[in-house]
Design a protein that fits this description.
The chain is α/β, with parallel strands linked by helices and about 280 residues long. About 45% of the residues lie in helices and about 15% in strands.
């Protein structure tokens, strides 16, 4: 089964290009509460999209699905509504899938599922060490449709130097096994274009198939629309990029277990090199 490819944008032109090229989900990212504190000073994207972005994109998303990451569960403030209203507004604006980030407990997940109320798919973003510790209890909550493992914040939660260390220490494989046992679809992290990325995308794609993963984010290493402004160039990147990912998927889907293990060994070697370089620069 091909990976569900997701791309974050609130730009209607880019969204339509991505959809036409075969991207399965266009991702509106409204999460901002607590994000600056967690990721301040890091080379990460903080989007702070809005309900209006959902409304603006909805008419154009006719083939792909519209995924919205809301904020972690929160109370109302003078500046912003509470989670219940945020989720109501998100679904009313046209979200097909609603994603909960930065949760830690089964009770938070239960509250989120209740707020969604069956009106959209429920996707959890596992990205805290506490969520991993509580994952057995969390998976007992009824109404979870999908789970994505957020490598960026999760590796920070574990004080790791590089997000893909979580593949090497079996954190990801252990979680994927638990999700599979519950019959819940799952994915992890992001990928660049084939042949690109600090850890080459083709290695990660093979590990997705090895672990039974069904979804991946197309990262800035795939296409950074903040740097590439020409729609024709963006279109070429998406068409070629998605095609090459699908070709690589067809190849790695036929791997034997021995080939998957060889691929994992290469990942471990390259991650160790990357971590060593990061520590040398620190």
């Amino acid at each position: 089964m091909p990976l569900t490819l997701m791309y974050i944008t609130n730009n209607p032109v880019t969204a339509q290009i991505a959809q036409k090229a075969g991207v399965d989900r266009i991702w509106i990212d409204m999460e901002y509460i607590g994000k600056d504190k967690r990721q301040g000073g890091m080379d990460t994207v903080q989007n702070h999209h809005t309900i209006d972005d959902i409304r603006n994109l909805r008419p154009y998303i006719t083939k792909a699905q519209l995924l919205v990451r809301v904020n972690p569960l929160h109370a109302a403030t003078d500046e912003y509504c509470d989670s219940a209203k945020e989720i109501d507004d998100t679904i009313a604006a046209g979200a097909d899938v609603v994603m909960l980030p930065m949760f830690k407990t089964a009770e938070e997940v239960r509250t989120f599922v209740d707020y969604v109320g069956g009106r959209a798919k429920v996707q959890l973003l596992v990205e805290t060490a506490e969520a991993v510790s509580n994952i057995d209890e969390i998976l007992e909550v009824a109404g979870i449709d999908e789970i994505h493992i957020g490598l960026n914040d999760l590796h920070l939660s574990y004080n790791k130097d590089f997000m893909f260390e979580l593949i090497c220490d079996d954190t990801i494989s252990s979680l994927c096994k638990k999700f599979a046992e519950k019959g819940i679809k799952y994915g992890f992290g992001g990928i660049a274009r084939v042949g690109y990325g600090m850890l080459p995308a083709e290695l990660i794609i093979a590990e997705h198939y090895h672990l039974g993963s069904t979804a991946a984010i197309l990262s800035r290493g795939f296409c950074d629309a903040n740097l590439v402004s020409d729609p024709t160039e963006i279109e070429n990147i998406f068409i070629d990029g998605v095609k090459n990912i699908r070709l690589k998927e067809a190849e790695v889907s036929e791997y034997t277990e021995e080939q998957y293990q060889q691929n994992l060994s290469i990942i471990r070697e390259k991650v160790a090199e990357i971590v060593e370089k990061k520590k040398a620069k620190a």
